[in-house]
Amino acid sequence: MPKAKAKFSGRLQMQEIDVHLNEGTVQWNGSVDSSNYTWDPPISGTVYGTLLNYQGALDQMEDALHQDPYKSPPKAPILYIKPKNTITGNQTVIPMPEDVSELEVGACLGLVIGEKASRVSEDEAMSYIEGYTIVNDISVPHESVFRPAVKHKSRDGFCPAGPWIVERDDVPTPDNLTIRVYVNGECKQENHTGNLVRSVAQLLSDVTEFMTLEKGDTLLVGIPENPPRVKDGDQIRIDIEQVGVLENKVKKEAAVGGIRL
To answer: By the 8 A CB rule, do 9 and 39 touch?
Structure first.
C-alpha cells in the first residue's frame, strides 16, 4: 500500500496517509472513506513547467523549430513558472475566463523536490525527489513557445495539483507510467512517461545544471502531445499509474467562488 502525504482543508500540517489506489480511498485517522475529506494542494513551493519534453510534442514542432523565431531545436529544457495564484487542489473548480471558449488540459507528473538540488548528476538525481504528484497544467490554447505564455498559463486556478504526494520509493519506475485523461468519463488522451525526451533523472540533472531547486519545489516533466480541450461544465479526470487520480471541473469565472465538486 503506497505511503503518501496530503493536506486536508482546515488543517495546517501535511498528514501521512496510506493510499488504496485500486479503491480510490485513503486511510488516515482510522478512516478509509476519502469522501469525508476536502483537499488542499499538497505542494507549496515554486512549480516549474517543462515544454516539449514528450517526443511526440517535440516532433509536432520539428519543422517550426528550424524556422524563425526559433532557428533550431532547444538544447536545454524550456521552463516556465506556474505562480502561486494558479495552484489549487483536487476536486476544486477551474475558472474559465469569460472571453475564452476552450481550455487545454496539461496532464503532468510532478516531481516534488525533497532537498536543495544544485548541479545534481543524473546518477544521484532520484535521491533528491521526495515523491510524485499529479498536476493539471491548464492553458488557454496557444501555439508559440518562443516567449513565456504568461497570459495563457498563469490565470487563477490554472494549476490543480494532488490529491497527495506519493513517496518516491512507492513509484520505483517513474519513466514507466501510463497517463490517461478522461473528460466527462470518456478517455481523451493516453500516453506514457517512457516517451519523455529527457527521463526523470536526466531532466532533474539538466535543470539543476543552471538553476537551484529548493525543497518543496515541483518540477513538471512535461505535457504529452495532443492535449484534450475542455469547455464550461466539463469534468476532468487525470489518472497516473501508481500515483493516483486528480479530478476537477471547469466553470466560467463568473460562476466560480471557491466551489468544490
So the answer is: yes
Grid-cell match 546518477, residue found: 123
Separation of alpha carbons 170 and 129, rounded Å: 12
How far apart, in Å, are the Cα atoms of 75 and each of 24, 117, 260? 40, 21, 41
Rounded Cα–Cα distance for residues 100 and 135 (Å): 22
Q: How many CA atoms lie within 13 A of 217 on its CB side?
A: 20
Beta strands 235-240; 107-113: pairing state: unpaired
- Sorted by where each starts, the structural domains of the chain and their CATH numbers stand as 41-256 (3.90.850.10)
Cα(232)–Cα(227) distance, integer angstroms: 17
Q: Rounded distance, CA 107 to CA 189, Å?
A: 9
What are the tens digits of pLDDT across the range 51-89?
Answer: 889 888 777 766 655 555 556 566 678 899 999 999 999
Percent of residues, the chain, with pLDDT higher than 90:
68
3-state DSSP assignment of residue 126: helix
Mean pLDDT to the nearest integer, 138-146? 72
Q: How many CB atoms lie within 10 A of CB 133?
A: 29
Burial label, 20 (beta-carbon count in 10 A; 0-12, 13-18, 19+): middle
What value does the mean pLDDT take over residues 195-219? Answer: 97
